[in-house]
Amino acid sequence: MISFNDYNFEGKRALIRVDFNVPLNGDFQITDDTRIRAAIPTIQSILKRGGSVVLMSHLGRPKAQENEFSIKHIVNHVSEKVGTEVTFAGDCISNGAFKITKDLGAGKVVLLDNLRYHSEEKAGDVDFAKKLSAHGDVYVNDAFGTAHREHASTATIAQFFPNDKMFGLLLGGELESIDRVLGASKKPMTAIMGGAKVSSKIDIIHQLLDRVDNLIIGGGMAYTFAKAQGGQVGSSLVEDDKLDLALSLIEEAKAKNVQLLLPSDSVNGDAFSNDANTSETSVKEIADGWMGLDIGDNTIEEYAKVIEDSAMILWNGPMGVFEMSKFEKGTKSVAHAIAKATEKGAYSLIGGGDSVAAINKFDLVDQVSYVSTGGGALLEYLEGKVLPGVKAIRD
After folding, report:
1. What is the band of 353 on the pLDDT scale with cuts at 50, 70, 90?
2. Do residues 198 and 339 both lie within one domain?
């Protein structure tokens, strides 16, 4: 496999699959540019080494060619971040687009319009991928966020660059970071799993039970465990069809000598609202009409101690409804405990949209080891699945 750092980009057009699927407000302004910033080192490295760059991405989920999903809305912001003018091509496979990229001079940057304006992109269509490949002399996949998709621009296209395909600095760094955690010899290793449902994390939990020393559970899924153990959880979010599964995971953790930490207490609201009345009770004694929305103080203290004593940490999913200030304490405390552990020498990987949003909200990005840009891709990689976008480069 070709190394990005060893490749000679001089005089070459680098066709880069980036993940610029960023959130826009009603005025088409970017509300979080994390994904754009993450791709800048790859782009600037190629430009410095005498190459030119053609960027391709999707944005949102267009059904036709709706204006709201046009990449044109982010061109100025990309120009600002790259530090050079970016030319916008009004399509990705039109004659006009090919005219712009055909004789691209060194140091130039072009941004193609939304790949998903064409249904062939999601279908992984070979002819569409071949057309896209004409925009570059070398293919660089730097979109970890879409590496789990077998789309034309993420997987199919690689076959047209048999000797000139590679990971960019972002995607390469993502894989290195995750592999470092999964293959960790440093102990103890702690995984923190949050989020709404046990069912969405079941495959990862199974994988992690073979690797970790401690598995911390928080978020909505904790109430399924509490009810499975005979607890009263009021109107908390529960997967009633997963109670047996929760019990079997508790037994599996015991059998594998993994310390499974479940909340002992809960901060509850009488409505799913920041204006709700709150109470703090045992996680198994939540009154009818109340719902668990965060972990309680005893749980925070227990979790923080385990996290701060860890050498490797993986965090995926919040401890509660951290978007609401009344129910943010658990997630905030876990984030600070991870930062403290990192300061003491632990390696910490933060992944998944909500965990990343929390780390950003509490301004701790620079105090953890690595923040992943991948949501679904990270989860599937942790589950042990082969990612099409990764396989296409490694094959």
Report:
1. low
2. yes
Catalytic site residue 13? no
d(CA 191, CA 213): 8
Based on the domain organization, do 191 and 132 belong to the same domain?
no
pLDDT surpassing 80 at residue 352? no
369 contacts: CB under 8 Å, gap ≥ 6: 177, 342, 346, 347, 348, 349
State how beta strands 291-295 and 265-269 pair: antiparallel
pLDDT, one tens digit per residue, over 145-187 is 899 999 999 999 999 999 999 999 999 999 998 888 888 778 9
Last residue of one domain, picked from the residues 129, 146, 172: 172
**Both 168 and 224 in a single domain?**
no
In a domain, 97, yes or no: yes
| Separation between Cα atoms, residue 387 and residue 393, nearest integer Å | 10
The residue-averaged pLDDT of 128-157 equals 96
Q: Are residues 347 and 285 in the same domain?
A: yes
Q: Which of 60, 353, 361, 385 is catalytic?
A: 353
231 assigned to active site? no
- The answer to whether 330 is a known catalytic residue is no
**Catalytic residue at 353?**
yes
Q: Does some domain include residue 197?
A: yes
Of the candidates 81, 130, 197, 326, the residue annotated as catalytic is 197
User: Which H or E run contains 139?
Assistant: strand 138-141
- Given 35, 165, 201, 332, which residue is catalytic? 35
Range of the domain at 48: 4-172
